[in-house]
């Protein structure tokens, strides 16, 4: 007989009645009913209710055992009466009459309860993460994560992808976020970098003649934490394919995601053929390249309206003359909303750092007019034109923002989400995927005012290579794409630039000399010079996928051992100081603040 258990705590049912069994696990909860003591025993697989009568000589011993003590329990399976069946657990048709109990692991006083999912401070939860992970909700999230990764691996192998591991110690990259640097003992004064992504290596795998690569890849970036981003490290489904175009990548990901999200969620998928939206259209309609398409609200450009003689809104007209733009959001049939609702939106917008949102509601008696703080500034003809542009109707409300393009996009993007939530317009029981495509190859850096790569420097520009307009680089579009779900960016990807001479020209536009490219990307540029196939890829974030499937808003709820907002591991006390001997070995000195 097995020493610690004959069955798990999620296994027993009526077929086991009258059998003597052995269970091991944690005491999840106890309920004292006077003559009877009920003990819920928990392990990784479930909970089994156990019971002992007061007449039993070990009753008082069990009564004193603290919750979360690890015990081995021997007992007999008893069928529950119909009125006491618990349909919420898999073992709810039975209970175990306790015959004997052994303590396997004692516990100190708990800093937080395990049997409930009550909210506790991040500091306590992360310091005692091993306890936090015992709690039902987060325990199930981590199991879900494991199943998702296994499913992805299996599906990728089914369609011919091979899994390879790329180096963790590599060279620093001049692009992207900050690197984590690792000093080299054998090469004093030099450093490795932990990979922000296996970008160059996966391209080198394609140059090496392998056709389809994937990896559940660890990535390291020294950047600030966000709700959908862990500081320090994260995992992604990294993949690359040879002899492909953009649509080939889309087909692989759409097929995988449809299977994945249907298997692990009961939510409806809004579009089984994911919409393709150009970057330009996304910024116009949604103010963001990460739009939540569950939200029906769309942005319209009304700049031309403020060039009309019959519009008397002088503040906006003056700003437009000086180069500002005007864009709007329309809410359907909100004529009966109290003025406090609209004023509240305007006040909220000012709290976000904008100048606020002007608004008016369309109405009609003898003619079309507008009520609200700025409604009087618009003629009937101008309102009819606004209705045509915004596809609005009588009873709808139009919110207006005027200013610099980036500022208007920013405020209307978050206003779009806030207003939709306030009006309960978002169906939380759906997933809505889309592709954002046709990103500009270059953009102007707001600080330096110089041209820089807007997305991925290794991407292939669109168009015939011998006819590219390199004189006007800001007009160049790239084969770059993002996949977005419910307003969360899951991944960026691209068809790669595999032509060395073109790469030199594009990097030159961004301020890199030929020597810079040869120095910083020596492995890549050298490999591309020896016969490189057209190739492309993408790398969806595992953490964000699981976050969506688990219906969580914070990525720490689906990560086993996350850091806090300051990139600290409170459980293991990392980062930590190292000894002088270790520093000496690495030829390093710590510069102390004066």
Describe the protein in words.
The chain has 594 residues and is of the alpha+beta class. It has helices at residues 59-64, 122-127, 129-132, 136-158, 199-207, 246-264, 279-286, 314-321, 339-351, 380-390, 405-422, 500-509, 514-520, 522-528, 542-549, 580-585, and strands at 20-32, 36-43, 46-53, 70-79, 94-105, 162-163, 181-183, 191-193, 212-221, 232-242, 268-269, 276-278, 299-301, 325-331, 358-364, 368-371, 397-403, 430-431, 433-437, 442-444, 451-453, 480-485, 488-495, 535-538. Helix 5 (199-207) packs parallel to helix 14 (522-528) and helix 13 (514-520) crosses helix 14 (522-528). The longest helix is centred in the N-terminal third of the chain and has 23 residues, at 136-158. The radius of gyration is 30 Å and the shape is globular. The N and C termini lie far apart (67 Å).
As a whole number of angstroms, the C-alpha radius of gyration is 30 Å
Number of helices: 16
- Mean pLDDT reading: 95
| Helix and strand composition category | alpha+beta
């Amino acid at each position: 007989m097995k020493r610690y258990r004959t069955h798990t705590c999620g296994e027993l049912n009526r077929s086991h009645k009258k059998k003597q069994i052995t269970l091991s696990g944690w005491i999840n909860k106890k309920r004292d009913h006077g003559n009877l003591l009920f003990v819920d025993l928990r392990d990784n697989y479930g909970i089994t209710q156990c019971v002992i009568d007061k007449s039993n000589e070990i009753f008082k011993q069990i009564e004193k055992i603290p919750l979360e003590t690890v015990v081995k329990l021997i007992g007999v399976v008893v069928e529950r009466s119909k009125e006491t069946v618990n349909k919420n657990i898999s073992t709810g048709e039975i209970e175990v009459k306790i015959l004997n109990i052994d303590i396997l692991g004692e516990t100190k006083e708990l800093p937080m309860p395990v049997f409930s999912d009550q909210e506790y401070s991040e500091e306590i939860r992360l310091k005692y993460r091993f306890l936090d992970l015992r709690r039902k909700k987060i325990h199930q999230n981590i199991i879900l994560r494991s199943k998702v990764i296994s499913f992805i691996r299996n599906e990728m192998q089914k369609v011919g992808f091979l899994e390879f591991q790329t180096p963790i110690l590599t060279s620093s990259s001049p692009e992207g976020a900050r690197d984590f640097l690792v000093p080299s003992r054998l090469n004093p004064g030099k450093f490795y970098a932990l990979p922000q992504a296996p970008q160059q290596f996966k391209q080198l795998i394609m140059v090496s003649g392998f056709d389809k690569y994937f990896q559940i890849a660890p990535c390291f970036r020294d950047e600030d934490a966000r709700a959908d981003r862990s500081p320090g490290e994260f995992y992604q489904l990294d993949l690359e394919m040879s002899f492909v175009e953009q649509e080939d990548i889309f087909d692989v990901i759409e097929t995988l995601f449809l299977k994945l999200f249907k298997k692990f969620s009961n939510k409806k998928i809004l579009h089984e053929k994911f919409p393709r939206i150009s970057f330009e259209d996304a910024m116009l309609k949604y103010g963001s390249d990460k739009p939540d398409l569950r939200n029906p609200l769309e942005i319209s450009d009304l700049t031309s309206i403020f060039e009309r003689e019959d519009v008397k809104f002088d503040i906006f007209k003056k700003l437009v003359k000086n180069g500002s733009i005007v864009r709007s959001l329309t809410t359907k049939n909100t004529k009966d909303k109290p003025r406090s609702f609209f004023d509240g939106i305007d006040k909220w917008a000012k709290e976000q750092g904008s100048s606020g949102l002007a608004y008016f509601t369309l109405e009609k008696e003898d003619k079309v007019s507008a009520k609200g703080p700025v409604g009087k500034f618009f003629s009937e003809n101008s309102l009819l034109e606004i209705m045509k542009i915004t596809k609005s109707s009588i009873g709808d409300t139009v919110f207006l923002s005027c200013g610099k393009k980036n500022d208007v996009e920013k405020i209307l993007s978050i206003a779009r989400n806030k207003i939709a939530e306030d009006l309960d317009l978002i169906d939380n029981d759906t997933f809505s995927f889309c592709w954002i495509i046709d990103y500009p190859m270059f953009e102007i850096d707001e600080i330096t005012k110089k041209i820089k790569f807007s997305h991925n420097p290794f991407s292939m520009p669109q168009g015939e290579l011998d006819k590219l307009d390199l004189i006007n680089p800001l007009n160049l579009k790239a084969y770059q794409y993002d996949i977005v779900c419910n307003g969360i960016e899951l991944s960026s990807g691209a068809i790669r630039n595999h032509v060395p001479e073109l790469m030199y020209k594009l990097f030159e536009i961004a301020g890199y000399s030929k020597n810079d490219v040869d120095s910083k990307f020596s492995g890549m540029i050298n490999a591309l010079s020896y016969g490189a196939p057209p190739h492309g890829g993408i790398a969806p974030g595992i953490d964000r996928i699981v976050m969506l499937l688990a219906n969580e808003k914070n990525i720490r709820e689906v990560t086993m051992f996350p850091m806090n907002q300051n990139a600290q591991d409170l459980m293991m006390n990392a980062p930590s100081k190292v000894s002088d001997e270790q520093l000496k070995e690495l030829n390093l000195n710590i510069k102390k603040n004066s």
